[in-house]
Design a protein that fits this description.
This protein has about 100 residues and is α+β, with helices and mostly antiparallel strands. The chain contains five helices and three strands, in the order ββααβααα. The protein starts with a strand and ends with a helix.
């Protein structure tokens, strides 16, 4: 099934900071996060160098994707870590899988 919308989580090199976002073009969005981090962007991901994709979910509807993003943002860090680990046990960068 092809999805049009994605909720994703990116992190930094040391896996200490998480950023949760929603997009309709995950490849472009990861590239934007990378560009911001390499060029001293003032965005959250640029400031904390979050450009390693470690988790994503696909959705057909933007409404569902936004609802899931809001849900995940309310979670405590421990619960987010468990979600990522269940999807990506070694927390490897998934950037090449989507780009």
């Amino acid at each position: 099934m092809l999805y049009s919308y994605f909720v994703y989580i990116v992190t930094n090199t040391y896996r200490t900071t998480l950023y949760i976002g929603v997009t309709n073009n995950i490849q472009r969005r990861i590239s934007q996060h990378y560009f911001d981090s390499q060029n001293g962007g003032k965005s959250f991901t640029g400031k904390y160098n979050c450009h390693y994709l470690v988790y994503y979910e696909g959705f057909e509807s933007p409404k569902d994707a936004i609802a899931r993003e809001k849900e995940l943002k309310k979670w405590r860090r421990e619960k987010k870590n468990k979600l990522i680990t269940s999807f990506n046990p070694k927390w490897e960068s998934l950037n090449n899988q989507v780009i």
